[in-house]
Amino acid sequence: MLDFFTIFSKGGLVLWCFQGVRGPAAACTAPVNALIRSVLLQERGGNNSFNHESLTLKYKLDNQFELVFVVGFQKILTLTYVDKLIDDVHKEFRDKYRNEFQQKGILGILSGTFDFQEDFLHLLREAEESSKVRAPTAMKTFEQSVKSQKTVKSMIEIRGEKPKEKTKNKKNKGSKKEGAEAATIPNKVSSAAKQNLSATAGAGEELSKDVILQKNREEFFKKQMRKEKPIKSPKPEAQKEKGKKPRVWELGNANAKDLDYSSSTTNGNAEACPAEEYDADMAVGDRDREPGRLRELEYEGEDEIEEEKVTQNSSKPSAKKGGLGGMFGMLKGLVGSKSLTREDMDSVLEKMKDHLIAKNVAADIALQLCESVAKKLEGKVMGTFTTVTSTVKQALQESLVQILQPQRCVDILRDIMDAQRHRRPYIVTFCGVNGVGKSTNLAKISFWLMENGFSVLIAACDTFRAGAVEQLRTHTRRLNALHPPENHSGRTLVQLYEKGYGKDAAGIAMEAIAYARNQGFDVVLVDTAGRMQDNAPLMTALAKLIAVNTPDLVLFVGEALVGNEAVDQLVKFNKALDDYSIAQRPRLIDGIVLTKFDTIDDKVGAAISMTYITSKPIVFVGTGQTYCDLRSLNAKAVVAALMKA
């Protein structure tokens, strides 16, 4: 039984609605709104099914008249006729009100009255009856079976005799040998006959035969000598020099003392290391930076688009050279005021899918993106002088930009100021697999927060990896050198809260939050140990840390290098936090920090894959080794690099 069936325009105007279950009208409003927010607006139309709480929603788009058909029913029901019903309703509704849509356009939608109740009930009854009526499966007769073609003799098995099926291959393998043996039999027979004849011959004849055999041998040896070529004497090889030759470096330095940078020793003890000269410009990197400003990724797509236009114009055949043939060749790829079909887009979408996969987008996600674009464009009427390739490419670019735009706007500075008004610290937890750069990017974010005037407490909750606490201690010392307390009225902007190794990470985080609340810190950054997504004990510990301390923001740190593996990591981290959490409403990942973005050139597909699979925004992008190498995601820059040939 259907819960509801609704037809509305892409502008949000409901044209007709059927409610199969008694209840308030809002019962179908919430699922449809969730479908619009999560699928239609986010360009995730690759699959025509969507689940919301206990309902399953199936939808179909009519791109020619900008309509959406949605049917909703309970998850536990297996309704096989839903796909047929939605296709029949789509066809009937279009045919019935085609003139109003074509002649009046938007005015026809706004002022039209759509009485579709009786037609829908008729189509619903037909669909239900078609699912019940099934053709009975007819059984095969004995004459149609394979067994009827066998004889009784072939089915009798004799003890000790191998089945014929097994001996077929052996017969086939030995057929060549049998053929060769059969060919040699006549030769043997003829030689035996000759021997019999020779036995009956006389002694005089034997003497003449010996003379004949001797002559034949001499002639045979002469022919063999003529065929043989003179063998050339091999040249004496040069004697190989024994031993290795020393390698000579062309750009190297022959003096080994110049290459020795180790400290000199006296009586076996190293001399005291001189104090480190700390250069702030080397740590910060960018001298022209604006304090507290997080720059976006550079966007250089406009010049490339102009260059592509120039090359396209230069590659067009002129009408003067080719005459009518050149003109028709130029207009061959133009659509010309006709609706697009799936066959028109298949070849272009296949190339687009291969291009996305080459740019490190996951194969499944690339396929879903192309399916979404196909459903978005199928049936849409194109203007004259518009190519299918440019239309599909533009639609794909718009979809990618929409995917990278977050559903939830994460404004950390605004949230910190809101937490300050409530006199509590803002808590951020970092999680991820081993070696992705959690501690390094935590230090970058600390520097960015300090540039904006906030005090930071770093909680060293990675009590597993050797050297994790010392790494954070070094970052804290360097950050304090960049912002000394003398410049902030004696206030230390960054401190490290540590309890050593082997302790409970959730307990250390709780103590650090209490300490930050007492000391008046604005932000607490919780560093956690790296863990693989399949390690159940460590994932349980992470879920416990998040459930006990309830951070304001949970950031997943992932590498742009790994590509498809980052998708698997992100999905399994989210699932583990949901499964192992002790809270009633488990806290999942809120955002992504994409590191090592400067090492992938234009293969930026990991950003698309990670945001598409989880709908989580990329909050920060790491682009280098210095503290200021932190950027906010620019969707247009990423899409421009992704679509670059």
Automatic annotation (TrEMBL):
GO biological process: intracellular protein transport; SRP-dependent cotranslational protein targeting to membrane
Pfam families linked to this entry: SRP-alpha_N (PF04086), SRP54 (PF00448), SRP54_N (PF02881)
Compartments in which it is found: Endoplasmic reticulum membrane
Domain SRP54-type proteins GTP-binding: 617-630
Coiled-coil residue windows: none
Entry GO CC: signal recognition particle receptor complex
Keyword Cytoplasm: no
Oligomeric form and interacting partners: Heterodimer with SRPRB. Interacts with the signal recognition particle (SRP) complex subunit SRP54.
Similarity section: Belongs to the GTP-binding SRP family.
Full protein name: Signal recognition particle receptor subunit alpha
Organism whose genome encodes this protein: Sphenodon punctatus
Name of the gene encoding the protein in the UniProt record: SRPRA
